[in-house]
Structures are given as C-alpha cells and as structure tokens.
Design a protein that fits this description.
The structure is a homodimer of 450-residue chains.
Chain A (H helix, E strand, L loop, with lengths): L2 H16 L3 H10 L2 H10 L2 H7 L5 H10 L2 H9 L3 H10 L2 H10 L2 H10 L3 H4 L10 H4 L6 E3 L4 H10 L9 E5 L5 E6 H5 L7 H4 L7 E2 L4 H10 L4 E5 L5 E6 H19 L13 H27 L2 H6 L2 H29 L5 H34 L2 H31 L8 H23 L1 H4 L1
Parallel strand pairs in A: 1-2, 4-5
Antiparallel strand pairs in A: 2-3, 5-6
C-alpha cells in the first residue's frame, strides 16, 4: 500500500476520534490490511491508541499484536487483564503468541498461559532460543498417518481451523510418528479420493532439527526454493514448520547484521528511528575501540617523529598509504563476509581464498602504487619520494588483501561472527603496517629525500 | 544436503565413467536432488559432462538447465541441436526457459522458439528487463473466470500439467479478463463443490505492474508475507506470477549489492570464485578513485607542511582525526543505506534523519574527543595538543555524521544508487575536513605547541 493511504487513514481516524465518533475511527482502521493497520496504529499517540484498543474485536486485536513490533506488542498486551490477554493469545498464530509471551514479565506470561485454551500449541515453542529453527517455527501444521486417503485428508483440512500460515503441505508420519513424506496440497486435490497419501507423497524429505541455527535453515530453504520446511525433534517427529516469510526475515536480518557489523554498528536492532541516546550508547564503544587502535597506529608514527621533523613532506602521504590499504582490505572483507554468509567458504577453499585475496591486493598495489608514485614524483619533483610511496603501497595492499580475508575466515572458524570486529582489526593492521612500511623505507632512503 | 554427500556422489560418478559404466554414473547423478545434481554436474570436467549429457532424459536435462548458473546453462544449451533444445525448453519452467533463451545468440534463440510447442508461455516473458516484475515472473499460473465452481476449478487443476512452481493460488478474472480476486488452494479444497469462486476469493488483491522494479516488488511481498504475487499489465490482466523464491533471490542480491557497494566493490556478481583478472579489473577503478581522493586530502595537508616541519608531533595525530571521522561516517552510512533499502526513509523524515545523524556525530565526538584529548595530554604532556585534537575530533565527527547521512539520501533522491560512491565521497570529506580542522586549530595554538 502507498504510504500516503496510511496517512489518509490516520487523518480520518484522528478527526473521527476528535469528534467522538469512535466507531467510525475503528471502521477506518479495520478497513486497512492488518499490516498497514499495525503501522497506522503505531503512529497514533497513546491517548488515541487507548481509545481504540478496547473497541477492537478479538480477531482484530490478535491481528494487531501479530503485526506490531515486539516491544509495542508487549506494551499493548500489558494493558489487558489476564482473561482478555488469554483470549487474544488463543486467537493468534502460535509462534506469534509465543513471541508475545516471551516479551511479557514471567508471572504475567504464566497466568495468561494458565487461562489459555490453545496453550498446548504455544507451550512447545517456548523452550527454544529465538535464533534456532525451534524458535522460528510455528506449530500450526497438519500431520497425517500413513494409510490416510486423499478424501480423508481433505476432511481433516476442513475440520482444522483455517490459519493464515497456510498449510501448502501436509506431513505424513509412520507408526512411530516419524516424518516419512510430504504431500503438496495440489497433489492432494487432483488425486483420486481413495488414493493413499503415501503413494502421492514425496519421500525425499528435506527438514531441519529444532536446535539448528536459523541462518543454516534459511540457507537450505533458499537453496531448494522451499515454501515451508518441517522441523523435527531428536526422534524424527515433526514438531513445527518454518514458512517462506520466516526465511525472508532471517535473510534480511542477517544482511542488516552484516552491513552494520562491517560498519561497526553492533546492534542489528538499531535503526534510524531509534532514540538518539540508544544510538550513541550502541555506537560509542566501537568508536572508543577505534580511537584506541588509531592511537596505536599513531604510536607507530611517533617512533619516526625525528624523521618527520627532518622531512615534513612525509606527513602528507601517510594517510594515502593507510587509506588505500584500508580500502583494499574493505573490498576483501565485503567479498569474504558475503561468501561466508552464503555458505560459499569451507575448510577446503579457505586457505586458497586467503592467498588469492593477498595476490589480488599485491597486483592492485602494483598498479595503483605505480600510478600514485609517478603522480607524486610529478607533483613534488622527487622520484625517490614517489618510489618509496609506491613500494609502501604495494606492500600495504598485499597485506590488506591477505588480512582482509584471513581475519573474517579465522573468526568464522573460531565460531565467532566474521563481520563483527573484522573492520577494526583489519584497519588497525593496515594502518600500522602502512605507516611502518612507508616510514621505514623513507628512513632507508633518507639521503635522497632531504 | 551435506556438501560431503555431493563429494561422495562425484567420486562414484568419476569412478563409474572411468570404468565405462555410463548408466551407473547417470543413476548416481539423477539420485541427487536437482539442485545438488546441478552442483555436482558443474564440478565435473568437460569430458565427463559431455559423456553424461546425451544420456540424461528430457526431464533431467530440463531440471539441469533450470538449476545451473546462467552462463553454464547457456553453454550446455549450445551443445544441443535446435530440435533437442526446443524439446528441453518445452519441458522447463517458462521463466527459466526465457532466461536460457536470453543468454543464447539471437539466431539460435529464434530457431529454438520456432521449434518449441510451448513458445506461447515463453514469448510474453522475453520483452521484460531482468530487474522488473515482468522479468522475474513466470507465466505458469491458473486464471479462472467468475462463476467457476470449486469442483470446476479442481477439474482445471487436474488438466493443467503439474509444475514445480506450485500454484497455491488461483486468480479470478472478470469479463474483461481483469484480476478481481485470489482464491487460495486451501479454501478451494475445503469448499463445497458447487461454491462459486467469487464467494471464496479474497478481493483485496495485492499485485505488481510488469514494469515495476523488482526491489519494490520484493519489499511489498515481504511486507505482506506473500507466497506469490500476481503481475498485471496496463489493462489490469494477470500476465504472470512472482513466487516467494524470487523474492528471496532479490533480497539476497540487493543485500550483496549494498554490502559490496559500501565497500567499493561495484559488481554484485563478483565473488570469491571469480577469476583473479576479473576481480582486479572490477576493483581497480575504485582504488584509483580512492587514490585520487587520498591525494586530494594529502594536498590539504601539504598546505601545512611548514607547520608540520616546526611541530612534527602533529603528523602523529592526523590519522587519528581522519580515522575516527571515517568510522563515524561509516556507521551513519550503514544505518542510512539499510533504512533506504528497507523503504524506511521518505521526503518527510529525510531532513530530520540527516540532522539527527549530525547530532549523534557531535555527541559521540564530544565523548570520544574528551577521552582522546585527555589520553594525548597524558601521553605527550601537552594539554593544548590534547585540546586541539579533541576539538578537531568533535568538529570532524559532527561533519561525519551529517555527511554520512546526507550523501546516501541525496543520491537516492537523485535516483542514483545510495550505496554506490557514498563511501568514497564521504571519506574524502571526513579526511579533508579532519586534516584542515586539526591543522588550522594547531596553527592557531602554535605558540603553545612548539
């Protein structure tokens, strides 16, 4: 929907509330798609929200809680008494209800669970960590025993309450409830009524384990273009399903995380809408860290202070060496971090990749170093200055490519986040090495630089 | 699938071919999931590929062409004669067939199209640019006229050939063939046989136009959690469908693009597997550009050469000012580029966002500048040096936050890619401003620095 349409609805809702026509405001709000409705609701002030909330019916309230941001959903949930809350949670998708319960104070969550009728759908979801397959899955799916016929399956579909997490697939289980096959809804529909599900099921099941990391699960669903992936427990029993929209969320979240971490913004939840205090609190530790590493690089230069006092022109080109090293390293970092995220690097090709990035840095350094060296010779009229700078660039860009690949790959093999801290570590190395190389070569060529 | 399983299959296939048992090799290959099969096939050398290809049946060949990378699929297609090629293309998903045809020489593509039986499904896809909704959609979908009953719809489903791009949804059209509603397969299945589709359809249709940019389409599908989105032409007639796996590809591609561009890697197709020549050819222009801007920043410093000759210690801290400015700007850049990609910035909040980033930079500068200033005072024993550095940091980090937000937002409003060139532009500003501020303040305080 066009954002201006949400604006229009908001204007109408505010005017209606102003005029005391609460029902008109409710009607305007509920005419919107649930996603847009949650957006519009968030944009209203507390007073208007409080006026609307009690007048929404159960389903609309459940939709709202499903679509609001986690924090806001919890805040809205807090305004209900236990019984109301339990009713709303019963109406929600189990995975969304579990998320809301997870964000509530423990005693409130327990009371609500005790009152809920559908608690058995939500309870199995609570133990799983957010970033695992178990934490992402929903329990609304349909499992059929082997021997079920197509028409029986359709009867079961009719009986089960409709759900927005559409079950495109039905899961077939053996006597021990283990997942043995998947039936697509389409195959079910076009089959003869008496056909047994095991004859139309796909028995080459691709599944995930409850404890698996969401990123691995997302990679698998993306690789095989799956709209839904069954999640099984240790015994091979389906306990939930992850749907295509979850994968999309995971991929988008992981991309944000990588972009932020490469830029030394540690919290993926930070956005342009975060309060300024939070923005500073999140960003400042990394700026302090980067100040510390910059001072380390400064210390490297300070060892050459008398050299610079003698040949002040050297100070002019220090930043050129550091800058180009940093740029080369950043290019390698981006390629490697992305390749790691897409699962393209393993033990086998890791070492070759590091060497290749080093070689790329070296060749790029030779090309850039030559041009910059010649340019500086032309500018300052000193061929030795140009040569010293060019050679330092080659050395630093070789190191930059090598380190830009080595650091994230090493972090990954240490089971740390490859994007986090990579930039700081790599820049420290390229700055310090660049300064040391350039100033050491300058000291060696001192008689020709004076 | 575990990569080691593909390795295992490859070992078996190579051994079978070595022993002349082509059928055994084919069997091992076709036992794999089509996605893994394509991976394994790519890893075989040309000789082995040539031995296997003619022995694959039509369906396996079509699967292979669908899953191979574009370039390799075209290479394989080139080995067939026109008739074989037409048969294989007929067997493929229309959108995949269109992609292969687009990568073939024009005359080969024309000949193949002339021989194809299903050309009418593929032809409508050919005119659209790759990055539009039309370029992403497939023509395999089912449209029903209003008045169709549930049982008639199921009859139609039975008649239409099954397709891997599962039609979870059926599209309902009015007399002028315009899209008026969507019926979920599940609702169809559980409805009474005589129910008319218009009574169970959802008439609040979310769709895309053929010419729309794929990124906007992906944002819409992600926003509303859609598994499939109908694509309509100027007359409102459905001409294709975009499925969830396409969205995932778009989101992943756009994320790669943003990460690369922020790191000055211009081509999103570059990967760790690209030949080294290509890697250097793509990366070097940006390194030259960054060399040019680094030399500009060096020129700024060169205006203060006599100052540095007098107070060489200043050279030590130049990189601290530039580095922290660059880091602050990079943080802002990452936040803004991501917010732009997720559609969170519009005309209304753009200016506020820029000011907020500037303010964040100022506050962070005050915090970091104070600590660094005190540290340098302690290290070098000169309070004025510490103060000059601290004040320069505050100024530069204010500028950094401001420019780090202003540049990508301006590029976006100029309809350019906000991530491209942002880093270079922003770093040039923060380097030059940082050097100028620090050295100007130093010149002013010269008597206390000597």
């Amino acid at each position: 929907m066009d954002p201006s349409q949400i604006e229009l609805a908001l204007t109408r809702i505010r005017a209606a509330l102003e005029a005391g026509e609460v029902q008109a405001a409710i009607d305007t709000l509920t005419d919107l798609h649930p996603v847009d409705r949650a957006d519009a609701f968030s944009d209203l002030d507390d007073k208007d929200q409080a006026a609307l909330l009690p007048r929404l019916d159960l389903e609309a309230t459940a939709d709202l809680l499903e679509e609001l941001e986690d924090e806001q959903a919890a805040a809205v949930a807090e305004t209900f008494d236990t019984e109301q809350l339990a009713d709303v949670l019963d109406e929600m998708e189990p995975d969304e209800a579990a998320d809301v319960l997870g964000d509530l104070p423990a005693d409130r969550a327990e009371q609500a669970l005790a009152e809920m009728e559908e608690a058995r759908n939500v309870l199995p979801l609570l133990p799983f960590a957010d970033e695992t397959a178990g934490g992402r899955m929903t329990t609304s799916f349909i499992a059929l025993p082997m021997g079920t016929t197509a028409s029986e399956a359709i009867q079961i579909l009719r009986r089960v309450e409709p759900s927005s997490e559409t079950p495109y697939y039905l899961y077939v289980e053996d006597e021990a409830d283990r997942l043995v096959g998947i039936v697509g809804l389409r195959d079910l529909v076009i089959s003869d009524a008496k056909t047994k599900v095991e004859t139309i099921m796909d028995s080459e099941v691709i599944s995930a384990h409850t404890q698996e990391d969401q990123e691995d699960v997302a990679l698998r669903m993306a690789r095989y273009d799956l709209a839904a992936l069954p999640v099984v427990n240790d015994r091979g029993v389906v306990v939930g399903v992850i749907t295509h929209d979850d994968v999309l969320d995971v991929v988008a979240e992981e991309a944000t995380e990588d972009i932020y971490r490469l830029a030394n913004v540690p919290d993926p939840d930070l956005s342009i809408n975060s309060p300024i205090r939070q923005a500073i609190r999140m960003r400042i530790p990394w700026l302090y860290l980067s100040a510390a590493t910059a001072l380390f690089a400064a210390w490297v230069i300070s060892n050459f202070e008398s050299l610079i006092a003698e040949v002040a022109i050297l100070a002019v080109f220090l930043s050129v060496v550091a800058g180009l090293g940093g740029n080369t390293a950043t290019q390698s970092l981006a390629l490697i971090v992305r390749a790691l995220a897409l699962g393209e690097i393993d033990m086998k090709n890791a070492w070759r990749t590091v060497l290749k990035e080093g070689l790329t840095g070296f060749v790029a350094g030779a090309l850039v170093g030559t041009v910059v060296g010649l340019a500086v010779w032309a500018w300052k009229g000193n061929p030795v200055l140009g040569m010293v700078l060019g050679v330092a660039l080659i050395g630093n860009m070789l190191v930059a490519g090598f380190v830009g690949a080595l650091v994230p790959i090493s972090l990954k093999f240490l089971r740390l986040d490859p994007a986090l801290a990579s930039s700081v570590l790599v820049t420290t190395v390229t700055d310090s090495v660049g300064f040391a190389l350039f100033l050491t070569f300058s000291a060696l060529a001192l008689s020709n630089l004076r």
